[in-house]
Design a protein that fits this description.
Length: about 190
């Protein structure tokens, strides 16, 4: 009896597979291509839009965990970023005083402080820095607090696409700040 039912299902599914219809509203994902001349192109529906991106952005990695630091350095290696990696908040403050930093990847807790200390230092120095908090514990209150403070949050283990998108977001934010805005009265 069971072998007959099994044969029926096997015969039915082998003879007439039912393909799932694709929804009509699903558009193909945009293709992003980065070129060596600093022009990033985004194509959707056959229309190519180009935006000029800065050639290189300064990134700071603050992580006492060697595996997270190595993973970030590996991901950021092929991207247009000048990367500095430190293990403590005090070292990060020294780097921030020495040169302008556009994006900071910082773990939620470091041996001598937290990412909030770096945010407070950046706010006191009036530096425009994009913060990306690396959540090693994965707790929701920490995630929500980072978002409320204006930082992006990524969970460990890190995914390369998440890190790349955070860097692109920082590059675009830096581009908006560096281009002076013209007042509507003078336009």
């Amino acid at each position: 009896m069971f072998s007959l039912i099994g044969r029926y299902f096997t015969l039915f599914y082998k003879v007439s597979p039912m393909p799932l219809p694709l929804p009509r509203y699903a558009a193909p994902p945009p293709e992003k291509t980065g070129r060596a001349d600093g022009v990033w192109a985004c194509e959707r529906d056959g229309v190519l839009k180009e935006t000029e991106m800065p050639s290189e952005v300064a990134a700071l990695v603050v992580s006492p965990r060697l595996e997270n630091r190595k993973a970030l350095l590996r991901i950021l290696d092929g991207l247009p970023a000048d990367v500095f990696a430190v293990g403590r908040i005090a070292q990060a403050i020294e780097v921030m005083e020495a040169r302008p930093i556009a994006v900071i990847f910082c773990e939620e807790r470091v041996s001598d402080g937290t990412y909030r200390d770096l945010m407070a230092f950046a706010a006191a120095q009036q530096k425009n820095v994009q913060f990306v908090v690396l959540l090693t514990t994965g707790e929701w209150p920490e995630f929500l607090e980072a978002l409320n403070l204006g930082a992006e949050a990524l969970r460990c283990p890190l995914q390369p696409t998440d890190v790349e998108l955070a860097l692109i977001h920082a590059m675009r934010k830096e581009q908006r700040v560096s281009v002076p805005r013209v007042s509507a009265a003078f336009a």
